[in-house]
Structures are given as C-alpha cells and as structure tokens.
C-alpha cells in the first residue's frame, strides 16, 4: 500500500511509518472514535477515561490529549495504547500497512567496507585510464612506424641499406602488437604494452 522504494537508505523505521496517515492507524486498530472538526479530528481519549472528547489529532500526524496531557505521533499512540516499546509499535504499523523495512541501520563495519570499495573502484578507474592512455599512445606510434615502413618498402627506399627480411619480420611483429592492442583481450593488450620496444615510447 505504501511503497518505500523512494525513501532514502538512511531513513529509519520511525520515519517510514510516518508515511501512514495517523487517522488510518487509529481506525485500523480501533483506538478511538474520531470525529472530524475542520482540519482536525477529535475523540474521547483512549488513554484516560473521559466523557467529553479532549483527544485531538492534527493534520501533521501529531496528536494531543488536553485531558491527560499525553501527546506524540502514531507510533507513540500505538505504543501507549497497546503497551509496546516504540520500536515494537513502529514494526507493527509497518507490518500491518505493508511498509517494507529492509534498511537496517548501517553498521560501522559496513560503512568502512563501502568506503574501502569506493577507494578501490576509484583506483581501478585511474589505472584503467592510464592503461588506455598508454594503449592509445602505443597504437599511434606503432601505426606510424608500420605506415612509414610500408611506404618505404613500396618505394624501394630501404633495400640498399637494410636487410629486407629483417625489416619485414619487424613490421610483422609491429602489426602483431597493433592487433594485440586493438583486441578486447586485456592479457594481449598488456603483453603488447610491456613489450620492450613499446615501453621505450611510453616513458
Ligand atoms: Zn487523555
């Protein structure tokens, strides 16, 4: 009936049960015979014997008896009428009005753990960011080298000075490294990034 999904996590059960209209609570448990008087409700006090009604319920969810001087909210009223502790009264209202109470107070240990997890997540994001920057840089340099080498090979420029087989072998390896960096496999990406040749461009 009363959805608790929009309630912040820190909200406790006493705040949750305030969602329930106090008039509904009083009627549900037959606590008093309420009569509307303007925006207020009035009844004979359920906490002390009286003939003339001096028990008032206000639109803000509060109540006060001008006969015996008692006052409070719906939890206080249910607690006093049924002789319960406030927490027991709040639980009863929550249960009977279908309020989900799944947010127990957060322990110190849970807070510490959540904070630690947040720090670790931030570190991971930072490492990932640095990793991606290095990967971009390595791809840039490797692509440039391979392009330049291929252009030179096409033009026949290096033939006189370099061992062609060695150059082709090197280009093959650089293309392999590019393939590793472009792959979705983190192990292959790391393998390429930690290659000594790649490392020297990243320093
Ligand atoms: Zn009273």
TrEMBL record:
Q: Which UniProt keywords apply?
A: Metal-binding, Zinc, Zinc-finger
Annotated GO biological processes are: DNA replication, synthesis of primer
Q: Which domain of life is it from?
A: Bacteria
Please tell me one Gene Ontology term that the record gives under cellular component.
cytoplasm
SUPFAM superfamilies named in the record? Zinc beta-ribbon
Q: For this protein, what is any one GO molecular function term?
A: DNA binding
Where are the coiled-coil regions? none
> What residue stretches are annotated with the Zinc finger CHC2-type domain?
41-94
Under PANTHER family, the record lists:
DNA PRIMASE
| Official protein name in the record | DNA primase
Q: What is the lineage of its organism?
A: Bacteria, Bacillati, Bacillota, Clostridia, Eubacteriales
